[in-house]
User: What shape does this take?
Amino acid sequence: MKDHIASLVLQSLAQLGTELALPSDIAAKIRIDRTKDKAHGDFATNVALLLAKPLGQNPRALAEKIVAALPQDSAIAKTEIAGPGFINFFVNAGHTAAQLEAMLKDPRLGVAQVATPQNVVVDYSAPNVAKEMAVHHIRSTVIGDAVVRVLEFLGHNVTRANHVGDWGTQFGMLIAYLEKCENESGSGLDLSDFEAFYREAKRCYDEDEQFAQKARSYVVRLQGGDQYCHDMWQKLVTMTMEQNQRIYDRLNVTLSPKDVMGESLYNDMLPQIVADLKAKGIAQEDQGAIVVYLDEFKNKDGDKLGIIIQKSDGGYLYTTTDIACVKYRVEHFHANRVMYFVDSRQHQHLEAAWQIARIAGYVPAEVSIEHAAFGMMLGKDGKPFKTRTGGTVKLKDLLDEAEKRVDAMLTERGSEYEAAERQQIVHDIAIGAVKYADLSKNRLTDYIFDWDQMLAFDGNTAPYLQYAYSRIKSMFRKTELKPGAIVITSEHEEALATKLLAFNEAVTNVANKAMPHLLCTYLYELAGTFMRFYEHCPVLKEGVAEDTARSRLALCALTAQVLSQGLDLLGINVMEKM
Ligand code: ARG
Assistant: This one.
């Protein structure tokens, strides 16, 4: 409500703007305070007193002008000018209550669908074939999926694009090694340990010249469309993505096999792209390679930096693929917006590809291409997150460990469940905690992976929010009373009401800025506001009038719904009992 009143005052001042020379930071200067005495209304502002002197005006006269220019608003019952020039606002309590009641009846909880849905392509997860999912893939997967859920909830038409690293010269070596394994082990091939598979393939390649020769010939055959090599390649892709799909499912991530649009998809388009860029005079030959020089990219001596799009041996590069990829997304999906959830270290690479695509006319100016970059995940020592021996942390191991810790935690808390129920709860808390730890930080910064912090039942964590939800649910199990008409009487009810009504804004912000932490912060604040309300405003205690109890129950029910919906948009489950 404070923000709402501040915006009304600002509108009034803007209206008067032509006759007053307002300071540029006026928006930040407007303070709306809660009144101490209800006889003076609910809120007051000293803005007229503040502005009178610099504007050379009489404060009361200025207050009158401001009041006269206030827009009509159903939330405000009346205004008064008090003392030397305070403006008092009397809130229309019925208005807030009516908004809350409408929200409670609305399955979308007051979050409207957008009037003009966009075609949004979201590039996220993007693991590499025959490799373990690395930490930056986890971040991309979890953050990207939350934004996808929010965009879809708002009614946008979303295409999930899993830009899997499934092409490149390494496939010669991988096919040769897969062949070797198949010959040696028959059908009993186990590829679950990709790290070892990749390492061994590389070792053979480096140490065995005959193997290396075969690997090189397989690259050529694969690129030439040879059936055998293609089948072997397909096997590697399928095995990798089956394993990754199990992780997506376990993580409650909405990606599915049909979303795989790997680098190989663009392969056939590359010769055309290079020819076109040459024909348009954008690319030129330089020592046998094909290079694009961009004004925007200079080295430290101020010379233009060349971006190679075809090597002298004819091979294409990661950048060439991304040029084709963005072109395809615009043409094939009619994208209005393309979002890339990719490690911030790839920023220059992406910018270069998009710049070239724009210059070539593949991406119209009105299409927004965004790098939703993110920092690194660090260990508690502040160094990149690694296993004790310095290897990549396997996501599967990480999730196993999370479940083990949650299981122990539940035992310690003495929580009792049936076996199946317990398994589900352990899963939901563990996955929720790991995901939320990532989602709740501003993605642009590096963040420290800390088990104790993310599993705590207090603080900005998933278990805290899940607990707040289950606590409300348990309240409803203890009473026959049903939520009733909402009447806002106290400061704590008012604070909770204001927070609840801000859900729409929090969700919209996530979509606009591609920043799920804004929703996390909102939910955390909502849970905190609820806990304070609950402390000060008894619901089911003896002596509370039934109407009051039912009004408060309505606020509780709405809080539970917002928590559950908000967490669902983050891909996190809630539980009735905890
Ligand atoms: N596969 C890449 C990696 O592992 C990420 C791909 C990101 N998306 C893109 N269009 N380049 O780093």
Summary: The chain has 21 helices and 13 strands. The chain has a mean pLDDT of 93.
